[in-house]
Amino acid sequence: MADTCGQVLLGSGLTVLSHPLMYIKVLVQVGHEPLPPTLGRNMFGRQVYQLPGLFAYAKHIIKTDGKSGLFKGLTPRLCAGTIGTIVHSKVLQKCQEEKIEVVGSGQKAEDGSLQHVVNETTKEMIARSCATIVTHPFHVITLRCMVQFIGREAKYSGVFDSIVTIYREEGILGFFAGIIPRLLGDALSLWICNMLAHFINTYAIDDSTSHTGEIKNCSQAVTGFFASMLTYPFVLVSNLMAVNNCGLAGGLPPYAAIYPNWLHCWGHLSREGNMSRGNSLFFRKLPAGKMYAIEQKRFF
């Protein structure tokens, strides 16, 4: 219990610190570009037209809504983080007690073996999926609170009011908009990260060398970053589906088409070449073949 409380407190602190970053990323994912491109230099020093980065976008939000404007949607996100941590801990503990084994049932897998990695990854996937399902309604509310910045709406003003609004307009399914790509992306990211790390640690790192532990931890971090890059389109599609056709300007044309399901959203983004939109908030290049609409504050 003490460990869970510590995780909740640490997670809440990190959530508060990282919230402005997520806020700006979500607005970019939706396609909101309030500032026109400017002439700057890329990482190689060459002059190019660039879109405003993280700090320029943050300054615009502060100018519009004040410093507190950077923390829209923080309350439901904190609720999601707290509940998710508790659910994840309880489910993982239950999986350990039940000794769930996917491969090698009936025999103890050796630490570091492929069998052990598969079994532990499966338990982690179950725990994460349960936490995601339970907290997704708060995630949807968080995203919609953020996207209100585009149309200057106040439709989602609080957690309880937002719950009533979503239930009244969309029913129970409204709380789980975009959950399928989110679950798929989380599962794929976890498996890619753990399996790559296992093969690197097993076949590319010599256990007889010094600092083996630090090297293995580093490989886990690198594979985690690589996995998150590969599965980013799932994150993008999930977030867009969570705000699509919900009555906010950011989820309606011209910002977004009305998607019947997440596969249509994926296909549309793929055809437009926008599968990585919002993946980077620094050195943001102009979309190829797109024109900037000043009045609509978006590219078309």
TrEMBL record:
<keyword id="KW-1133">Transmembrane helix</keyword>
<comment type="similarity">
    <text>Belongs to the mitochondrial carrier (TC 2.A.29) family.</text>
</comment>
<keyword id="KW-0677">Repeat</keyword>
<protein>
    <recommendedName>
        <fullName>Mitochondrial carrier homolog 2</fullName>
    </recommendedName>
</protein>
<keyword id="KW-1000">Mitochondrion outer membrane</keyword>
<dbReference type="GO" id="GO:0005741">
    <property type="term" value="C:mitochondrial outer membrane"/>
</dbReference>
<keyword id="KW-0812">Transmembrane</keyword>
<keyword id="KW-0496">Mitochondrion</keyword>
<keyword id="KW-0813">Transport</keyword>
<keyword id="KW-0472">Membrane</keyword>
<feature type="repeat" description="Solcar">
    <location>
        <begin position="115"/>
        <end position="203"/>
    </location>
</feature>
<dbReference type="GO" id="GO:0043065">
    <property type="term" value="P:positive regulation of apoptotic process"/>
</dbReference>
<dbReference type="Pfam" id="PF00153">
    <property type="entry name" value="Mito_carr"/>
</dbReference>
<dbReference type="InterPro" id="IPR023395">
    <property type="entry name" value="MCP_dom_sf"/>
</dbReference>
<dbReference type="InterPro" id="IPR018108">
    <property type="entry name" value="MCP_transmembrane"/>
</dbReference>
